[in-house]
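I hope you will forgive my troubling you with a question about protein structure. The matter concerns a single protein, recorded as an amino acid sequence and a row of backbone structure tokens. Please examine both parts with care and let me know of anything in them that strikes you as inconsistent. Thank you for your consideration; the sequence and its tokens are set out here:
***
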Amino acid sequence: MANYQHRTFRIYSDDTADSATEPMTEVDTQLLAARELLRPIRSHLARRDLEPLSRSWFEELEIKRYAPHGSWLRRGLEFSRHAGESLVMLGAGAGSDALQYHRHGVHVTIGATPADHPEIIRNNFDLRGHSAHIVPTPDLATLPFDRWSFDLAYLNALHDSPTDLASVIQELYRVLKPGGKIFALFPAHYDTGFWQNILVPYRKWYTPPVQLTEAPRYSARSLKRLFCCFSEHRVGKRQLRRSELPYVWRFLPLSALERVMGRVLLLRAFKPVTAALEALPLHMAA
């Protein structure tokens, strides 16, 4: 039973719950939608007559997430290229990316903390006729999986960056098979806000740049250092809307601008195949 007040949703443990029942969680659906659409939290979201957390609401989020300005997600996250492989996902949001992998035959395991609202992800899957495999993961620095359990790993640190990020990366390295691939999303340090402050400094006095997120931001170089245990790093910068640019810049090609001042960094890297030597006795490894 849903109780919608002031743009929040309370989700109860079953449909028979009454008004006296203690809610499992309270969700700010405006915040959830902004994060799923990769929009600044303070940006205007058009009002719709759709009931939040309904199937239509989830479907609209999915369509808008991968609209032309977000089409890079389909290419960069390689939804259709890993059928039959296994993936561990941290930071699944509302579950849109997890659904894309699942539909393309990837065996998705979602590691979710209570703050990730796993019931929202499960509801999204259930409403689409799919079943979500969600594993409670209270501590992301200690994943409940064996070594070499997955072919792929996904980490979304755009909004809720883990406290001990280095330990989380080491855990993802541990559970990946040798030769496995990782996808990681992080806020870009050199984004449109950074360049506006440098190139159009007077603008911040009357229309300060709106940040995508309050999470720590990174450069491509700092991400490569952070994921130094992986190899063959590729970092791309994407996600930019014309409405987020000063008027004088809006006539420039958006595809070129987002590579310079996009808001999101996507890192792709591999666990070295030589990591398989770690399991060999010392005399054999030598």
